[in-house]
Amino acid sequence: MRYLTFMLAGACFSLNALALTPGNEPIQPIEPVEVADPAKVELGKQLFFDPRLSRSGFISCNSCHNLSMGGSDNLTSSIGHNWQQGPINSPTVLNSSMNLAQFWDGRAADLKEQAAGPIANPGEMAFTHDLALDVLRSIPQYQQAFDRVYGKPQITLDEVTDAIAAFEETLVTPGSRFDLWLKGDAKALNDTELAGYRLFKEVGCTACHDGQAVGGNSFQKMGLVMPYATLNPTEGVAGLTGNDADRMKFKVPTLRNVELTYPYFHDGAYWELEEAVDVMARLQLGRELDKVQVEQITAFLKTLTGEQPSFALPILPPSTKATPRPKPFD
Ligand code: HEC
Ligand code: HEC
């Protein structure tokens, strides 16, 4: 029956009008979030932007997950405390609430657990949780904000990470042209983009990149058909489990907003989206795509750029006499 409709439609309409039934697509549209607790989200936003959660007083979550740049830093690997070279490419925080777990190797179960990591990571914000709490507790406006949201006398790490996670859950990007198409706007994609989407499904990209986030829902080996050559020593999930079978296994990254989150792969080795598409086709699927096919898939991937989070810049409450001073040059 479906084939028949297909053929009939094909006879009458242009390629563009051949909108497939969105319910049957391997990718689902992102819906806007409904904010349940605006005060908590606002607090989490302040914390996300507050560099005083770092030893130097200079590095915030936004330094490496810049919301003006697709929630990433557009660097091969991040720059941490004392200009240290980070070990791995910074993934975007956009739509990260949809991930089955956090980090390339999934070592944090969720956003709340993840958020405690960078503050105390010597290669990132290089602080301690106690000192970060001392900073927050020394600032009356923070005390009041935490009190309003959590109703407890003393700010805790649990509350800090809970608020940051609540903010991150709002960082979704609905309204991409692809989502408009999924929702029935046949004109939202041009013929090249639509051909790219067809190819994306046909060659098998959707085996790993599917769902709302077009990824983020499984761990897969990088270099399934052909090994991936990299100078980056990261072993992926094997670094956690010690299992040889998990070597080079990474969380499949989301392809939402992928045109903004270069350079690509865990080692940030590829700057051009076309190159990443070519590498994926060869290494994961054993397929040689020609130039036109690579361009078509790339054109499709660019339709996954959604509405970026937009809000008033959070104004951070000033430090007080009691606030531990930043130590940028220790
Ligand atoms: C110095 C740069 C840097 C800073 C500062 C930083 N991050 Fe990250 N972030 C990274 C890198 C690099 C990774 C990937 C690490 C890995 O997977 O091993 C990451 C991973 C993540 C992830 C997981 C995303 C995914 O798809 O797996 C989230 C969420 C995140 N960071 C949020 C935060 C929050 C919240 C803060 C502030 C408390 C923060 N980051 C501070 C660099 C940074
Ligand atoms: C077998 C699973 C699998 C298949 C099939 C697959 N991918 Fe991937 N994809 C991954 C994994 C795993 C990564 C992360 C690899 C890494 O960083 O080392 C990735 C990364 C990417 C990236 C880089 C994203 C970023 O933010 O760094 C792009 C772009 C991409 N894939 C596109 C595609 C396209 C296009 C296809 C089809 C031609 C495809 N993938 C097929 C598993 C897969």
TrEMBL record:
<feature type="binding site" description="covalent">
    <location>
        <position position="64"/>
    </location>
    <ligand>
        <name>heme c 1</name>
    </ligand>
</feature>
<keyword id="KW-0732">Signal</keyword>
<keyword id="KW-0574">Periplasm</keyword>
<feature type="signal peptide">
    <location>
        <begin position="1"/>
        <end position="19"/>
    </location>
</feature>
<dbReference type="InterPro" id="IPR051395">
    <property type="entry name" value="Cytochrome_c_Peroxidase/MauG"/>
</dbReference>
<dbReference type="GO" id="GO:0042597">
    <property type="term" value="C:periplasmic space"/>
</dbReference>
<keyword id="KW-0408">Iron</keyword>
<dbReference type="InterPro" id="IPR009056">
    <property type="entry name" value="Cyt_c-like_dom"/>
</dbReference>
<dbReference type="InterPro" id="IPR036909">
    <property type="entry name" value="Cyt_c-like_dom_sf"/>
</dbReference>
<keyword id="KW-0479">Metal-binding</keyword>
<feature type="binding site" description="axial binding residue">
    <location>
        <position position="209"/>
    </location>
    <ligand>
        <name>heme c 2</name>
    </ligand>
</feature>
<feature type="binding site" description="covalent">
    <location>
        <position position="208"/>
    </location>
    <ligand>
        <name>heme c 2</name>
    </ligand>
</feature>
<feature type="binding site" description="covalent">
    <location>
        <position position="205"/>
    </location>
    <ligand>
        <name>heme c 2</name>
    </ligand>
</feature>
<dbReference type="InterPro" id="IPR026259">
    <property type="entry name" value="MauG/Cytc_peroxidase"/>
</dbReference>
<feature type="binding site" description="covalent">
    <location>
        <position position="61"/>
    </location>
    <ligand>
        <name>heme c 1</name>
    </ligand>
</feature>
<dbReference type="GO" id="GO:0009055">
    <property type="term" value="F:electron transfer activity"/>
</dbReference>
<keyword id="KW-0813">Transport</keyword>
<feature type="binding site" description="axial binding residue">
    <location>
        <position position="280"/>
    </location>
    <ligand>
        <name>heme c 2</name>
    </ligand>
</feature>
<dbReference type="Pfam" id="PF00034">
    <property type="entry name" value="Cytochrom_C"/>
</dbReference>
<dbReference type="GO" id="GO:0020037">
    <property type="term" value="F:heme binding"/>
</dbReference>
<dbReference type="InterPro" id="IPR004852">
    <property type="entry name" value="Di-haem_cyt_c_peroxidsae"/>
</dbReference>
<feature type="binding site" description="axial binding residue">
    <location>
        <position position="65"/>
    </location>
    <ligand>
        <name>heme c 1</name>
    </ligand>
</feature>
<dbReference type="GO" id="GO:0004130">
    <property type="term" value="F:cytochrome-c peroxidase activity"/>
</dbReference>
<feature type="domain" description="Cytochrome c">
    <location>
        <begin position="39"/>
        <end position="147"/>
    </location>
</feature>
<feature type="binding site" description="axial binding residue">
    <location>
        <position position="81"/>
    </location>
    <ligand>
        <name>heme c 1</name>
    </ligand>
</feature>
<keyword id="KW-0560">Oxidoreductase</keyword>
<keyword id="KW-0249">Electron transport</keyword>
<keyword id="KW-0349">Heme</keyword>
<keyword id="KW-0575">Peroxidase</keyword>
<protein>
    <submittedName>
        <fullName>Cytochrome C biogenesis protein CcsA</fullName>
    </submittedName>
</protein>
<feature type="domain" description="Cytochrome c">
    <location>
        <begin position="191"/>
        <end position="305"/>
    </location>
</feature>
<dbReference type="Pfam" id="PF03150">
    <property type="entry name" value="CCP_MauG"/>
</dbReference>
<dbReference type="GO" id="GO:0046872">
    <property type="term" value="F:metal ion binding"/>
</dbReference>
